[in-house]
C-alpha cells in the first residue's frame, strides 16, 4: 500500500539505512503551505530496528506538548448541543479526558443509522471541527430520516498534543475490528459505544480525516523508525480525496460525496502513475483499501456505505474554514445520496 500516513497504508518492507535528513527544512515545512520537503530519518531509535519500550518513552516525551484545549475546543461545543441532541459520555481516558458522543434525541429502531467520527487522528483538526460544524449546522436536517451518532473527537490526547498516535505510540486508525494487530483505549471505547447501541445494520459511516504535510515530515518518518522499516517518501496529494473499502466500493455514493465536496474545496488529481498515495485511483478522488484488513475506523460499523475523508489543509489555496466546510459537505453529500437513492 501507499505511503501517505493519513489514513490507510500498511508498511511491511525491510530496510536499508535512511539517508540524512535536513532538520531545518523539516521544521520549516511544519507550518507552511505547498508540497512538503523530503524527510528520510527520525531522531529516535536505530535504523532498521523496531522500537522497544525506551524508544517509545522517548517518543512520548518528544510528542507531549499541549498545544490546544480539548475542553475549550470540543467539550464546550458538545455541551452546547444538549438542547438539540442527546450527549453521551462513553468513557474516560488517561484520568483526564471525558469522551463524548452526540446522538439523535429520538432514536428510532425503524430508521437507518448513520455514524460520523472525527479526531481518530487527533492532529487532523478539520475532522474534529468538521464533525462539530456538521452537528451545529446540518445534522438536524436529517433528523426525520436517520438516527445519527457522531463522535467528534475519538482521540483527545492526540487533539491537544497535535499528534497522530496515542501516548503509547499506537496509530489509532489501525486498531479497529477483529483483524487489528494493535489495540488502543481510544478505539476500544468508541467500538464499545457503537456495539452497545445494538444496531443490526448500520447504513453509513463517514470517518473524517486529513492528509497533511506533517505526514511526510513527521508521522511517516516516525512510523518507519518505530517499525524498523525502510523510510518512505510521502507524496502528499494536493486536494480532497476519499478512501473507500475495496470490498464494498459504493462508487455511485462516493461520486456523490466528491461532487458535494467539490463545491467547497478542490479534489486531488491522480499523480503521473494514476495513483493517490500509491493506490490506484478507482474513480475521481477515490482510492480503495480493504478496510477490515487494515483495521481502519471506517470498518467498525460494517456499514453499507463507508468511507474515510481526506482533506488537505496545507494546500496553498485552502483555509482551515474551507476544510471544515469540506468535511460537512462530505457528510451531507453522503447522507443526501442515501436519502435520495438508497432507502
Ligand atoms: Zn487520519
What does this molecule look like?
The protein has 343 residues and is of the alpha/beta class. The protein has a single domain, classed as Aminopeptidase (3-Layer(aba) Sandwich). It has 10 helices and 10 strands. It has a 10-stranded mixed β-sheet, sandwiched between helices. Strand 8 (279-283) and strand 9 form a beta hairpin. Mean pLDDT is 92; it is low at 8-21. The structure holds zinc ion. Zinc ion is lined by residues 6-7, 121, 124, 173, 209. GO terms for molecular function: metallocarboxypeptidase activity; zinc ion binding. One of its GO terms (biological process) is proteolysis. Residues 1-56 are annotated as: Disordered. Belongs to the peptidase M14 family.
Task: Please specify the SSE layout and strand pairing.
Layout: H1 23-29, H2 53-63, H3 70-79, E1 86-93, E2 97-103, E3 113-118, H4 125-137, E4 147-151, H5 156-161, H6 185-196, E5 204-210, H7 213-227, E6 241-245, H8 251-262, E7 275-276, E8 279-283, E9 286-289, H9 291-294, E10 305-311, H10 320-341
Parallel strand pairs: 3-4, 3-5, 5-10, 6-9
Antiparallel strand pairs: 1-2, 2-4, 6-10, 7-8, 8-9
Helix pairs in contact: 4-10, 8-10
The protein binds zinc ion (ZN).
- Radius of gyration, in Å, reads 19 Å
Helix content, binned percent: 25-40%
Major sheet characteristics: 10 strands, mixed
Strand order of the largest sheet: 1-2-4-3-5-10-6-9-8-7
Overall tally of structural domains: 1
Strand segment count = 10
Ligands bound to this protein structure:
zinc ion
The fraction of residues assigned to DSSP E strands is 15-25%
CATH architecture: 3-Layer(aba) Sandwich
- The CATH topology: Aminopeptidase
The CATH homologous superfamily: Zn peptidases
Distance between the termini: 34 Å
Low-confidence stretches: 8-21
Sheet/helix structural class: alpha/beta
**CATH class category:** Alpha Beta
Shape: globular
Mean pLDDT: 92
The DSSP helix count reads 10
Query: From N to C, what is the helix and strand string?
Result: HHHEEEHEHHEHEHEEEHEH
Amino acid at each position: 500500500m501507499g505511503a501517505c500516513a493519513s489514513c490507510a497504508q500498511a508498511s511491511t518492507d525491510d530496510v536499508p539505512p535512511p539517508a540524512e535528513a535536513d532538520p531545518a527544512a523539516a521544521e520549516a515545512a511544519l507550518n507552511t503551505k505547498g508540497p512538503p520537503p523530503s524527510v528520510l530519518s527520525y531522531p529516535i531509535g536505530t535504523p532498521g530496528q523496531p522500537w522497544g519500550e525506551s524508544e517509545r518513552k522517548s517518543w512520548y516525551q518528544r510528542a507531549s506538548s499541549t498545544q490546544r484545549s480539548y475542553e475549550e475546543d470540543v467539550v464546550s461545543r458538545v455541551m452546547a448541543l444538549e438542547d438539540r441532541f442527546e450527549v453521551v459520555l462513553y468513557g474516560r481516558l488517561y484520568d483526564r479526558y471525558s469522551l463524548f458522543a452526540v446522538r439523535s434525541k429520538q432514536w428510532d429502531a425503524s430508521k437507518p443509522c448513520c455514524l460520523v467520527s472525527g479526531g481518530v487522528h487527533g492532529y487532523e483538526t478539520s475532522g474534529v471541527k468538521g464533525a462539530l460544524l456538521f452537528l451545529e449546522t446540518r445534522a438536524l436536517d436529517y433528523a426525520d430520516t436517520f438516527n445519527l451518532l457522531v463522535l467528534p473527537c475519538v482521540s483527545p490526547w492526540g487533539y491537544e498534543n497535535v499528534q497522530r498516535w496515542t501516548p503509547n505510540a499506537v496509530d489509532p486508525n489501525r486498531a479497529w475490528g477483529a483483524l487489528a494487530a494493535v489495540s488502543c483505549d481510544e478505539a476500544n471505547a468508541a467500538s464499545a459505544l457503537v456495539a452497545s447501541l445494538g444496531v443490526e445494520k448500520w447504513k453509513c459511516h463517514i470517518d473524517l480525516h486529513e492528509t497533511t504535510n506533517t505526514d511526510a515530515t513527521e508521522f511517516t518518518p516516525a512510523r518507519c523508525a518505530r517499525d524498523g522499516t525502510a523510510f518512505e517518501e510521502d507524496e502528499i496529494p494536493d486536494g480532497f480525496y476519499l478512501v473507500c473499502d475495496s470490498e464494498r466500493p459504493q462508487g455511485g455514493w462516493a461520486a456523490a460525496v466528491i461532487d458535494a465536496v467539490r463545491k467547497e474545496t478542490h479534489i486531488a488529481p491522480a499523480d503521473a502513475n494514476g495513483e493517490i498515495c500509491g493506490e490506484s485511483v478507482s474513480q475521481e478522488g477515490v482510492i480503495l483499501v480493504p478496510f477490515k484488513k487494515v483495521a481502519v475506523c471506517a470498518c467498525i460499523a460494517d456499514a453499507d456505505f463507508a468511507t474515510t475523508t481526506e482533506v488537505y489543509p496545507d494546500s496553498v489555496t485552502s483555509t482551515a474554514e474551507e476544510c471544515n466546510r469540506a468535511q460537512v459537505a462530505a457528510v451531507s453529500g453522503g447522507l443526501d445520496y442515501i436519502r435520495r437513492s438508497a432507502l
